[in-house]
Amino acid sequence: MNIEVFREYCLLKKGVTEETPFGPDTLVFKVMGKMFALTGLDSEHFNVNLKCDPEKAIQLREEFSYVIPGYHMNKKYWNTVDFERANLQQKKDWIDHSYNLVVSGLPKKQQESLNQLSE
């Protein structure tokens, strides 16, 4: 999964927008205005920050050397993943987990609005 495929995968999800709120070198994906994934556009290495359940975040860091505490993020809830080392299924699973975690934390009204959107 290169950055173009990563971008397409994120944008296929309901309610997702892409933005550059931190400047032109950081691509951020949000669902209903809340971040679930971001990556640098000016880096030689393809790393992605993904939101993660705190217990799962620790487990992933212990199991995979290419998963580290989120760079410039709240390290309790965010991991930085070396997307050049993770396999395709891991990448998809971890993006999905991040997206679903953010959706589950949305207020009920926003969740209902999201469910009303067409795929």
TrEMBL record:
The lineage of its organism: Bacteria, Pseudomonadati, Bacteroidota, Cytophagia, Cytophagales. InterPro entries: YjbR, YjbR-like_sf, YjbR/MT2646/Rv2570-like. Pfam families: YjbR (PF04237). This is Predicted DNA-binding protein, MmcQ/YjbR family. GO terms for molecular function: DNA binding. Keywords: DNA-binding. PANTHER family: CYTOPLASMIC PROTEIN, CYTOPLASMIC PROTEIN-RELATED. It comes from the Bacteria. The keyword rRNA-binding does not apply.
